[in-house]
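Entry type: protein chain
Record version: 2
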Amino acid sequence: MAPLLERYNAAVQLIESSRLTPTEHSIWRAFLDEAVNPEYAAQYMWERMHDNSGRPAEQVLQELKLGWKRVVTRRDQVPSEARPLVEARDDSHCFMLDQKPSDPSVSVHFDHA
């Protein structure tokens, strides 16, 4: 078995054996399964849990969840000169809501991270 796949399986086992709520188990499985690179996500998770700090897996996962929450709720302002480029790149499409404005004549501005 490839080393990264082994890490993925080991991370899944760590999640499943941790004392978490059913929702937290689902969140962490989704974190791994829906990552752009699940093996890399598992490697990151594995390294954080085995950093020789002696903290229990549940505590490490709570810290990771707080960090994850900070990342996904952070709103960076796009400089005004870059805004048209970002809107063109995203085709005025809100990826959070997975939709475009219903009326093309209405200018809708989205916050971009």
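Comment: The chain is about 55% helix and 0% strand.
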